[in-house]
Write a structure and sequence with these properties.
Length: 67
């Protein structure tokens, strides 16, 4: 959606590249602070995180065009 590489996400979020790789591969869970950083990084880039509710499941969409 954002066309970011892992390296881009690591740089933008401040989370180490290896940590992101291990998380993506299911080898570890993120600490709450790391999960919060990822969430804030995506939100600041215009990603809208949609919580599950009675009418549908969780999801994502782009809230604004990527600059």
């Amino acid at each position: 959606m954002l066309e970011w590489s892992r390296e881009d996400l690591a740089e933008r979020s401040g989370i180490h590249y290896i940590t992101l790789c291990n998380f993506e591969l299911g080898h570890c869970a993120l600490k709450p602070a790391g999960a919060r950083l990822l969430r804030l990084t995506f939100i600041s880039a215009g990603v809208l995180l949609i919580d599950a509710d009675g009418s549908g499941g969780p999801g994502v969409c782009l809230a604004k065009p990527v600059a």
